[in-house]
Design a protein that fits this description.
By secondary structure, the chain is α/β, with parallel strands linked by helices. It has a single domain, classed as Purple Acid Phosphatase, chain A, domain 2. The protein contains 6 helices and 12 strands.
């Protein structure tokens, strides 16, 4: 009986710990000097994998913090909505609050393509809220050329179409396309991996394939002439828990080298 009680307590503590970590949002700052960056300084507020239904402590904390962070543009790399939850209007409201009137660029993630979600409604309402959705295309903001890929997970990406001309900033839901960029972008931003979500004490993912350096599972890397930053994201998938892996909101300041 005593053994069962201790086992129950251990499970309870582990679950509580994972829940607390999953809701402990970190504000991270990254400085990058990129060759031939076209602006004297660009502050990019970067988020990914919100996995939100439009409510909850974590997303409210994200909105509150995002509004306070001074930046030039906001970039969101997909999985903005919870799987199989039809809360499109609430999710659009969240994105609009995070944008807070600032130029915002968004690409779809794999969850955003789920058939239960009315992506047409999401697209229309986000566009009406002045959120720029990029699907294998490029746009210009000030001196920056920004490219955005369709979701690589569902093979909706077309990197050759997107990079018929070089871009300064490339948005992708997953980090995988970095291997085909071939110096055609100065900086790439990605999410999807959740940095493993369940990690060892040193922060390395439990999932073996994400521990490979070439998986670009988390953090800042430099590959074949392009910087890539993969974020741990905001939300969680399947289980609302994280271990040795915090959600994060990232401010990148990019200057010419």
């Amino acid at each position: 009986m005593a053994t069962l009680i201790w086992l129950f307590l251990l499970i309870a503590v582990t679950v509580i710990w994972g829940h607390v970590t999953a809701n402990s949002l970190v504000h991270k700052r990254i400085n990058i000097k990129a060759k031939d960056w076209p602006e004297e300084s660009t502050r990019i507020l970067f988020l990914s994998d919100l996995h939100t239904s439009g409510r909850g402590y974590r997303i409210q904390r994200t909105i509150k913090l995002a509004k306070k962070v001074p930046c030039d543009i906001v970039c969101i790399t997909g999985d903005i909505i919870v799987r199989r939850v039809k809360q499109e209007e609430k999710v659009v409201k969240v994105i609009k609050e995070i944008a807070n009137g600032r130029p915002t660029y968004l690409v779809w993630g794999n969850n955003d393509y789920n058939k239960e979600i009315d992506r047409s409604k999401l697209y229309t309402e986000l566009e009406e809220a002045n959120i720029n959705i990029l699907v294998n295309e490029r746009v210009k903001y000030r001196e920056l050329v920004i490219g955005g890929l369709g979701d690589p997970f569902w093979q909706k990406d077309d990197i050759e179409k997107t990079l018929t001309e070089n871009v300064d900033l490339l948005l992708s839901h997953t980090p995988g396309p970095i291997v085909n960029v071939n110096r055609r972008a100065k900086l790439m931003l990605a999410g999807h991996t959740h940095a493993g979500q369940f990690c060892w004490i040193d922060g390395s993912p439990l999932i073996p394939e994400l521990r490979n350096k070439k998986a670009f599972a988390y953090g800042l890397s430099y590959f074949n002439g392009t910087y890539i930053y993969t974020t741990s994201g905001i939300g969680t998938t399947r289980l609302p828990l994280r271990y040795f892996c915090h959600p994060e909101l990232v401010l990148l300041e990019v200057k010419p080298q």
